Amino acid sequence: MVGLPLEENRRWARKNSQSWRRPLVNTQRPRRPVLLVLVCIVCLVLWRHSHQPSQSPHRNVVDDGSSSPFSIQDRRSLRDSYDQFSQRSIRIGTAPGAQDDSDVRTETPAAKDIPDFDLKVQDSEPNQQHHAQGKPTTPRAGSDPELPSGPEIVVYAGVPVEDATSDGQKDDLIINPLPKGPVAVKANLDPSKEKEFLISSPDQPEREKVIEAEPLDHLSLEEKADSLPEIIHIPFEDVVAGSTLQGWEDRWISDASYDSKAWGKLEEPKIDFVYLWVNGSQDEFQKTKHPYELNSVLNDDEGKWLKSHGVNRYRDWDELRYSLRSLERHAAKFRNKIQIIVNSVEGTPEGKQVPTWLNDNPHTQETVEVLAQEEFFDAEKHACLPTFNSLTIENQLFNTPSDTDYLYALSDDMLLGKTHAASDIHSPLFGPVMGFKTNSYSATSPPTDVDAHRFGEKPFLIYTSWLLNRRFGIRKRKGQGHFGHALSRSIMREAISSFPGPELQSACKRFRGEPGFQLYSWYVTFHYLIERHREALIWSYIMLRSDVDGDGNLSWEERQTIMQDLETGMNNEGRTTYRKRHYYHVSQLLQKAGLEPPKVNTDVLWTSLDGPQAIQNADCIEFDVNECLAPGFSISSTDSHSKNPMFATSNIFDRLARQEPKCGDCLLKLVLNKTPKGLGPLLPHAGSQQDQRDLVIKAVMRYRYTIINPDALFVMVTDAEQVDSTLVSRYVRSKKELAGQLCLNDDVSTNDEQELADVKEAMTELYQGLFPDPSPFEK
User: Fold this and answer.
1) Comparing 369 with 47, which gets the higher pLDDT?
2) What is the pLDDT of residue 191?
3) Which of 209, 186, 215 has the alpha carbon at shortest distance from 381?
4) How far is C-alpha 217 from the chain's CA centre?
5) Among 323, 383, 374, 381, which Cα is nearest to 350's?
6) Is pLDDT of 158 > 70?
7) Would the pLDDT of 9 be above 70?
8) Which of 315, 348, 641, 766 has the fewest CB atoms inside 10 Å of its own CB, making it the most exposed?
9) Distance (Å, whole) CA 778 – CA 318
């Protein structure tokens, strides 16, 4: 008999089970008679090992499968499985004493039939039954049409015995349970060192290399992701440690005022422009990608996925060349670096994809950086490279090296149509600019297999919405616009790091659509920023300003002050013009600080200086402190003899910030109604709480933002006639004014060479007509 190595077992199970992340105990069948038979077989095998001294230590014995009802994956003991998954019952980010209602309790269906112990798992994450290709694990290969036919392979662990002939080395042989395609070769854990071809003889054609199994460290990272908490809470003190204030920020946050005479003009920010780019038609790229395609869990026996997946994701219409031309025409004034994110490829002098038209003169080298994934991914995640999944790459953009914190992320099919000011993207007063679609998402239960198969970006929006709801409370959150994204590297790092398990799991998705959901970088970063600004203000008011004595509990006197603030705000609630709406005056406020006002994104919908975005349409007429803050909040006798834990500031903070978000929105809105402008009523008192006030100012400045209705045009390109009639005719021949931003998304579905050539010609006519002048970075 020959052995099937453990790594092959695991790879085979992942390849043939679309629910391979599901807790192993769920696949056990309650067949006690069969278990007895299995015990007998194991005893027999152990007896045979004890009488075969020539067998190699740790060698595995392969049975024909006729006597066991369990799959390879199920060889782990039930007790080990229980220990592994029970350790994941961790509560993260819950304030002391607060009730966390985000638990997902799962009782394993087969637990009652398992002997020896009662198995019940309480988990803070779903039972992993919602992967992109999720299907129940089927123990017997013959019962599932997707699994290969033939005898079931079952592995029994051998008993280590001394073997004088093997010198302690393993004698395992590799069996490929999926005998299809080219002949597999033993995998090199470093694909960059593998030979491109294997030639068996001069008379035979070249055979493609095959990466037979994922490297062990890649699989280990996936297992580590499962063991990490899904959600953590990062203290405000930690994120602002090391940051400094220039002096003008206090009056700006508290009173919406900037004194240019005292502080001078503010400096315009420098912004990096970061592109994701791939030339899918390059032979070296195809040779690099193809072995991983063959090894992907998405690869099917018929080869349908190989033929159909993502041709338009890798196709190149030469968009990047013209996008850089638009950038130099419309944003060169505040552009810092241009970073182009590419794949490493074999067989090129640079070892990575580089646009053939890109100049290599000193000016270009100073401004344009071509970064392979290995040059900015975290070192630990190098085991997951290369990746051909844009979502995976986007989740690591905060690691791109730069001397500025601000970046504007684009795909190569995005162009600037009008001249921009830096404030169209980011400003020192109002932070990054964000645009959203009209559709909202609010997942209150773990995503399902149905969600995984929804169109486009919806699976990732639903999954990330579910995480955000558990972290910040349930509310509808709009999807981000499909244009350039203004980001702070430090905020993006904090946002993604707040979801450790999903972040690491996302990093190991080599192709889009592989089992499991992915964290959606834009959506999580934008809404994390919005929610943290709101959370910082609740923290400031409840845990710092209102807790005057700093004992962590709101006394009757402290509660009375809160109720007085709320009463004053309630009296102004009906006065729609009492609070000045700063989002109407962004241009004037920027000019007063010596900054250029926006030229493109002038339709401003909200700024963080007006308060959290959630208060904009909050209905607070029926606000009740006893319902929203704590039972008995308005009654002095509830803590007349001793401290009442219901009035612990941590409990009330968690209640307002996460458990009852509408209550938190109304508290903020009513307290802000005390003053016509600024956020002063929510801040710690100047003087008596100065250190705490400075801490809050740093946090609120860190999480500032602006929401706009973008001046943008999005077109799904389908064919040459459409491009000519809707784009070339209008914007090139008729000289119509372009939108501020354009996104020409490749949705061409044909494989006809002539039709593709026609599209290429039409796109070139459009781009050349709009941006005929070469950039200084072209040869």
Assistant:
1) 369
2) 36
3) 215
4) 21
5) 374
6) no
7) no
8) 641
9) 12
pTM of the model: 0.74
Q: DSSP character for 400?
A: S
The Cα-based distances of 424 to 61, 330, 437 in angstroms read: 66, 11, 18
In tens, the pLDDT along 615-641 reads: 999 999 999 999 999 999 999 999 888
Q: In whole angstroms, what separates CA 102 from the centre of its chain?
A: 20
- Which of helix, strand or coil describes residue 63? strand
| Angle between helix 458-472 and 521-538 (nearest 10) | 20
Using CA atoms, how far apart are residues 568 and 456, in angstroms rounded to an integer?
Answer: 48
Residue 302's pLDDT is: 85
Instruction: Tell me the DSSP string of 594-654.
Output: T-PPPSS---EEEEGGG--GGGTT---TT--HHHHT-TTTT-GGGGSSS--GGGBHHHHHH
Phi first, then psi: give them for residue 438, nearest 5 degrees. Answer: -85, -25
What stretch of H or E contains 567? helix 556-571
User: Nearest 5°: CA angle at 491, between 262 and 228?
Assistant: 150
Contacts (Cβ under 8 Å, ≥6 apart) of 75: 9, 154, 155, 156, 157
Rounded to whole angstroms, the Cα distance separating 381 from 280 reads 24
Question: Which one, of 638, 644, 667, lies nearest residue 545 by Cα?
Answer: 667
Backbone angles phi, psi at 235, to 5 degrees: -60, 145
Place of tokens 């993260």: 92
Tokens standing for 507?
């990093």
Q: What's the chain's length in residues?
A: 779
How far is 346 from 626, CA to CA, in rounded Å? 66
Q: Of 654, 584, 655, 669, whose CA–CA distance to 618 is shortest? A: 669
Distance between CA atoms of 108 and 126, rounded to whole angstroms? 12
Cα(176)–Cα(8) distance, rounded to whole angstroms? 8
What pLDDT does 187 receive? 30
Domain boundaries, the chain: 225-247+269-530, 532-707
Name the more confident of 235 and 35: 235
Query: What phi, psi does 487 have (nearest 5°)?
Result: -135, 150
- The answer to whether residues 85 and 177 touch, using CB atoms and an 8 Å cutoff, is no
DSSP, residue by residue, 663-687: HHHHHHHHHHTTSSSSSGGGSPPTT
